[in-house]
Amino acid sequence: MKNSREIMEILEAYDLTGSYRSAAELAGCDHHTVARYVKMRAAGLQPDQRRHRDRAIDAFLPKIEELVVRSGGRIRADVVHKRISAMGFTGGERTTRRTVAEAKAQFRAGQRRIYRPWITEPALWLQWDWGEGPTIGGRRTSLWCAWLAWSRFRVVIPVWDKTLPTITACLDATLRRIGGVPAYALTDNEKTVSTDHIAGIAVRNPEIVEVARHYGMTIRTCLPADPETKGGSEATVRIAKADLVPKDVNLLEEYRSFAVLEAACRSFCEEVNNRVHRETRRRPVEMLAEEQQRLHPLPKQPFTVAFGTTRRVNWDATISVEAVRYSVPHPLIDTRVWARFHGDELIVTAVQADGTASEVARHQRGTPGSPVIDEAHYPERENKEGDRTPRATSAEEAAFLMLGPGAAAWLVEAATAGTRRVKAKMAEAVSLSKLFPAAQVDRALGTAAVTGRFAEKDLLSILDYQARHGIPEPTRASEAHSLQPGTSAWARFGTTTSSDATDDDEQDDFR
């Protein structure tokens, strides 16, 4: 079989010479080949089209097509080969595979679905879907992925569960982030949205209907197993998972905490919404500014009925639920929050100043009498024992503390040791600072604080020693040196002297 270029050369040679043999000599082929291609061109046929040759399997084509149609194009070629072999086919399995592949291609061509492009309108459609998020501390998360159809503005929010209150909070946060309410919200047929299907009609969850009514929008669900109705949100899920979930293709590290994942999702949204979209050739944030002019107004308060029961946060940053105290972040003191149980977990939701509802705390269910406290909800506690800093309240105290850090250390240690006449000794130190340099007095006070010398005249003794011997480091107990008194005094214990022996003789004589 000649290729297209060779056939064109043969036909050009014939047009030039007008003879089969002359054209064959120019093209380097047989004159019968030239004659065949010239006659095919004259008959209006494609010269490069292969002629169908009769095959042994042609007699079984009706049965093969029947099997392909009955299986919906899913039957395997080896199964077909067994069927037609039982009917008398003697050819090889390779021939059967090729014929079945041709039959399936023809079947799919007849069953192929024709898609019409979706022409979006501003402020009309919002879509959302769920994606599997990364694992944090051995616990799985989910990614709420919303997509405004016209402007292609995306919102990704990480959550711990996919309950109805969480959906309500995510929907509220999404609407406040886009700055308005579209006419419709399209999503999948989960139980939180559609409770049942009757005669092909999705029965809405009454609670999600109340949520939609509060925001002035209509909830729509896609057709089952029909990605065409929400392809945009599925694309958002695919892109978010590719950029946020740690995998081998992106080499992301595991997230240390849920707050780190939230920050990563915010950065992802800023990135995708500020780069040029390949369909619109514009940035989504620019198109959102135009779409916001046609969005419906957003209610000032979120739909809080689904968040649970209200609780007032006490001054100790706790709420009471079923006689158990649970901690919440301390900035929420003296505010109202909503608490609900989801399984064995208590979920606390709060409404921020901008009206956004978000989860602020999550605890395991506790028992009465045992408060459930998260240390992360409280500010860092002041270390009162480690940060004992004296503060002067009189002129005398200020004069003493002005000597330096040694004076402050002496006061702290002397007070701890219960030293008597502390004020008198402080006044004595101030008086000595007039006779000695203040730096030497401060060093002496520091030495006294380290060695625990707070008796009368101890400070003067230390000053005198430092003046005669310099300022050595104070002796401290270590592995090589002990501060315990030595045993040299016991070295002569048990020995007798001549005077002792005389006394013993006299006593014997007396007896």
Q: Classify the helix fraction into a percent range.
A: 40-55%
Spans of at least 5 consecutive residues with low confidence: 497-511
* Silhouette: elongated
CATH level 4 superfamily of the largest domain = Ribonuclease H-like superfamily/Ribonuclease H
The CATH topology of the largest domain is given as Nucleotidyltransferase, domain 5
User: Under the CATH scheme, which architecture of the largest domain would be assigned?
Assistant: 2-Layer Sandwich
Spatial separation of the terminal alpha carbons: 149 Å
User: Main sheet?
Assistant: 5 strands, mixed
Biggest β-sheet: strands ordered side by side in the sheet: 3-2-1-4-7
Q: Nearest-angstrom radius of gyration?
A: 46 Å
**Classification by helices and strands:** alpha+beta
Fraction in beta strands: 15-25%
Number of domains: 4
Figure out the total of helices: 17
Order of helices and strands: HHHHHHEEEHEEEHEHHHEEEEEEHHHHHH
Structure explained in plain terms:
By secondary structure, the protein is an alpha+beta fold. It has four domains: 4-111, no CATH class; 125-294, 2-Layer Sandwich (Nucleotidyltransferase, domain 5); 308-377, no CATH class; 395-469, no CATH class. It is 41% helix and 16% strand. The protein contains 17 helices and 13 strands. The chain has helices spanning 4-17, 20-27, 31-42, 61-70, 77-86, 93-111, 164-178, 206-215, 231-244, 258-273, 284-291, 395-401, 405-416, 422-435, 438-451, 458-469, 498-510; strands spanning 125-136, 139-148, 153-159, 184-187, 194-198, 201-204, 218-221, 309-312, 318-321, 324-327, 336-342, 345-351, 357-364. The strands form four sheets. A five-stranded mixed sheet has the order 3-2-1-4-7, with helices on both faces. It has a four-stranded antiparallel sheet with strand order 8-11-12-13, with helices on one face. Strands 5-6 form a two-stranded antiparallel sheet. β9 (318-321) and β10 form a beta hairpin.
